[in-house]
Every structure is written in structure tokens, then in C-alpha cells.
Amino acid sequence: MAVRVAVIGCGKIAERASLPNLVNYKDKVEVKVLCDIDEAKAKALKDKFSLSGVEIEKNWKKCIKRKDVDVVFIDTPNYLHEEMAVAACKHKKHVLVEKPIAIFAKSADKMAKAAARCGVYLMVEQTQRFDPVHQAAKKILDSGVLGNIHNIRGRIGHAGPEYWSEGKAHWFYDKAKSGGGAMIDIGVHITDLIRWFAGKKVTEVFATIRTIEKDVKVDDNATVLLKFEDGSKGEIECSWTTRPYEVMTFIYGSKGKMITSIGTEKPVKVILAKTGQGEDPNCILEEIYPELESAASGWENAVHYFIDCVIAKKKPFVSGEEGRATMAVINAAYESNAKGKWVKVK
């Protein structure tokens, strides 16, 4: 039997990520209901994706109680994630929540505990982990070919949510609803990716978070220094003032380095150094350009993976606990910026 899905929130994430990749997985999925306080938005998506049998619902609390729904996709503003996810778990619904998992790590704790207590799966849609470029890079890292990783950096940037979402009056610029600006919106992507690549706990951060260009009351750029539990270091940058879009990482190890860059001709480049006795490690031993295993988007891979986890009764690897660990870094970054000093990640 197909997994029966309710989509709560019918904005751009539902339109661009959730629904296209549910519809193209129709042998395993049946969309049952679209839910939004703005009924016209839900109806517009129903028409766009030719979902003739799908019901429209304005009240999300009614939506999660439906007996004909197995899974809930939460595509709403950040401040609503905790309440909706915890309630959905209590009604025995598996939950895929759009990033960030919530505004605060303590909210993520409640969400993860609710999922565990109720015997359902909670996954955060951290799509950078699912991009074929980053999946290829992770395999390289896990192989150990780069040796001991001592420095890892990442950068993500685009021109701002007003260019793909719903204008400058959008909830992204309301701190009470979003939790912040670029740092929480796309900084959560690069933070999660670097955490996954490193495979180590971030223990302390030092952040500079600013609004340097946009006429908004939240941040549009951030730089965060990271300390990992083993003493190695890292750095992340995120920006709402970068044109065109970019996602890049730089990983340095004892035997070489790796560079990833989304959208380039050779998006993963591994450079191994000469490390034999008497050899100069400044010289290149070999350059490797790994092939990508698929051309699918991170959004498609994430949605399909979650549906497969529900079918296979397998806990997703981007769990509520993982979402909590990423949000703890984001929260510590904002605290560090406010205090002007290194802050421990709690």
C-alpha cells in the first residue's frame, strides 16, 4: 500500500520541493490532503499538480488526526515546526519537517523525544546531505584517503529569499517567525553539511553575524569559526547577498585535500599529496574527479529517502537528534555574536 501523505503549508517549499517529488514517486506515495490557512494557495497547488482526488484543509489540527494519513510534511514557517511536529507524532504520524528543525535546540529536543515516545520517524529535510555532489564527497571522506581531517570549511550563498519566495514582506524577515536571517535560513544547511562531513561534535563557536546590504531587521551575512571535539577546526559562511547561488566546501587532511562546488563541470575534486619518505608533500601525487551516482536533486533524494524509510521501517539518518545538534550550533553562533566571544555549544 502506498504511503499516504498530508502536506501542511502550501508555500514555495511545498511547490518546489515536496509536491514535485511526491508526485514523481506515485508508485509509493498517495497525496491525501493539502493544508494551508490560505485555501487559495492549497487549491492552486492542487490544480498545478493535477491532484484531482486530494482534499483541501485549512485547519492543520484536523489534518494530523486523519486516519487516512500516515505521513505529514511540515512546510510552514520555522516558529510553527515544534507544535505541529509534536502534535503529529502524538497522532502516530511520521514527520518530515523542513529545515531548520525549529528555532531553538530545546524545541528540537521536544520533537525528537515525541517521535521516540510515539514510535514514529522524524526527519529534517537537510537537502545538502542528499545532493549527489555531497554524497560523493562523503564517500571520499569515509574512505580515509585524505588522512586525518584537521580543517574543514564551507560556504553557501544566494541573493536572498525574496528572489525565490514571496516578496520582501515575507515571514523570512520577521525574527519572531523565522528566528533570524541568513544564519538560520541557509546557515543551517552549511552547518549541517559540515557537521556530517566532519563526523565530529562541534564544541565551541565564534561568530560574526551582520546585516550589511539588505534593508531588513535580520542578518544577511554570517561567518562562524568552529572548534571540534578533537581539537580540529572549521569555518562556515552564509550569505543572502551572493550572486549567483553557490555551495562550496574545502576539506584539508594529512594526505591531501578535497574541494566541492555545486553546479560546476567537475563538482568534486580530490588532490592527494606526495607523502612517501623523502617526498615533498607540497607536490601533487594524484588528482581524482569522482563520478556522481545520480543526477537527482537533493530535494528529490531527500523526499524519496524518507518515504523509503517509512516503508522499510528504518529510522532516517537525518533524525530529530541530528537536527537538534545542528540547531545547537546555530543558537550558539547567535549567542557568540551577541556576546562577542567564544561560546560553548550546548
Describe this structure in words.
The chain has 346 residues and is of the alpha/beta class. Helices cover 34% and strands 26% of the residues. It has helices spanning 12-23, 39-48, 60-63, 81-90, 105-118, 132-143, 175-178, 182-185, 187-198, 298-312, 320-339; strands at residues 3-8, 29-35, 55-57, 71-74, 94-98, 122-125, 149-157, 202-210, 221-228, 233-239, 246-253, 256-261, 268-273, 284-288, 343-344. The protein has a nine-stranded mixed β-sheet with strand order 14-13-12-11-7-10-9-8-15. Strands 3-2-1-4-5-6 form a six-stranded parallel β-sheet, sandwiched between helices. Helix 1 (12-23) packs across helix 10 (298-312), helix 4 (81-90) runs parallel beside helix 5 and helix 5 packs antiparallel against helix 11. 47% of the residues are buried. The mean pLDDT is 97.
Task: Report a brief summary of the structure.
The chain has helices at 12-23, 39-48, 60-63, 81-90, 105-118, 132-143, 175-178, 182-185, 187-198, 298-312, 320-339; strands at residues 3-8, 29-35, 55-57, 71-74, 94-98, 122-125, 149-157, 202-210, 221-228, 233-239, 246-253, 256-261, 268-273, 284-288, 343-344. The chain has 346 residues and is an alpha/beta fold. Helix 5 packs antiparallel against helix 11 (320-339) and helix 6 runs parallel beside helix 9 (187-198).
